[in-house]
Amino acid sequence: ALAACAAAFVAPKADNAIFFENFQSKSNPLKQWVKTQHSMYSNDFEVTAEYSLDEEDKTLVLARAARHYGMFAPAKTGSLEGKDFVVQYEFKLAKGQECGGGYLKLVLEPFDTPKSFANSVPYSIMFGPDKCGDSKKVHFIFQHRNPISKQLVEHHLKDPPQFPTDELTHLYTLYVQANGNFALYIDQEEETSGSLLADFVPPVNPDKVIDDPNDEKPDDWVDDAKIYDPEAKKPADWDEDAPKEIVDEDAVIPEGWLVDEPAEIPDPDAAIPEEWDAEEDGEWEAPLVPNPKCDEVGCGEWAAPVKPNPAYKGKWKPPMIDNPAYKGPWAPAKIDNPNFFETDHVEILPIAGVGLELWTMSEGVSFDNILMTHDIGSARALGLQVWKPKFDAEKEANELKLKEEAAKRQAEDEDLNYEDDEEDIFGDMGAAPEEDDGEKEEL
């Protein structure tokens, strides 16, 4: 643990929960979970307080970098029609994050084979942070079944918010209301909100008319609007070999140019290293540095600059003309969408449980206090009771650490400045000219 808190730790509880996991069971902290037996997952999960301020506050940690993780906890919601739904959890990047996910997959019912859990298992909702390179966003993706085709379609939030990538514990909350509206919170502050119908791509209601998938572009279709003029000929006086630049014959050497001065000189401040052995290493030569005499105008052999060649024309190409065979851009024919439907209401599909199906390039990624409930009030209360004190304590500890590091750097800088001042003082004393014996005062 990072440090011990003064108050005794009390394992959190959640009222009115469909599912709650705090990883505090002393006998088996993963008793609600089943690790997948799929070969692609290493499953180096650990339940530890290593990254907590309180040594009793255990979290689920992805312990090794560059690994896939897969684990499932059964928790059936039943139908969510006419019901609010909330999913909330704490997430921490104790050692930062290069590339990897921190989201939950709320697996679609029915799913009764937890040991086969993998990325191919359909989900109802995917929610949480995901980072790779400069991209860092909070996913909210839900799946909706087209009532005509019976196929599941993923719908992605149009403008997902970004998320903090510091090393503090942050709280992620998704609240989907029975009326089809939603709100997404980070640290109990609303980041975005909207409608399941209006704010996702592709939209739930598909296009009424679509491109005909069986229509193909004819082989003789011409969609080049311009062509090279086949009648054009290169002018007789066109010189393709003329260079782009030529020497400026009118240029003169600048006044003050030092022709006899080298551009580089041996470093006058360089000293032969103490360990240099002339017999083994050869004659020592000072490294070269730019000649300061060259800074003002220049020095060394002078060469006239080049200038654009007025006779340059480059490689000749015939001009472009309108293509007489042009038919315009091709597009497939439009047909009525056989899978078209229209609804004014979207409900979240029933959930079979909580899945962690992740890839990470960083270790020390942790999860805690995973909650599913119908009650946004109890989710907010849990956050205030458990997450907020934890976050405030971590923030205070982090600020103190930064102050201590800044003070240490300042002290080191002052020591270096003092040593430099000593060298300057004693260097000047050692370089003072010797007194002339003839000018010494008599005692």
Radius of gyration over alpha carbons? 36 Å
Total strand count, please?
A: 25
Tell me the number of helical segments per DSSP (H or I, 4 or more residues long). 2
The structure class reads: alpha+beta
Gap between N and C termini, in Å? 74 Å
Overall body shape: flat
Low-confidence stretches: 2-6, 438-443
Helix content: 10-25%
- What can be said about the biggest beta sheet? 9 strands, antiparallel
String of helices and strands: EEEEEEEEEEEEEEEEEEEHEEEEEEH
Write a structural description.
The protein is an alpha+beta fold and 443 residues long. Helix content is 13%, strand content 30%. It is built from 2 helices and 25 strands. The strands form 6 sheets. Strands 2, 5, 7, 8, 9, 10, 11, 15 and 24 form a 9-stranded antiparallel β-sheet that branches. Strands 1, 3, 4, 6, 12, 13, 14 and 25 form an 8-stranded antiparallel β-sheet that branches. Strands 16-23 form a two-stranded antiparallel sheet. The longest helix is centred in the C-terminal third of the chain and has 55 residues, at 376-430. The radius of gyration is 36 Å and the shape is flat. Residues 2-6 and 438-443 have low confidence and may be disordered.
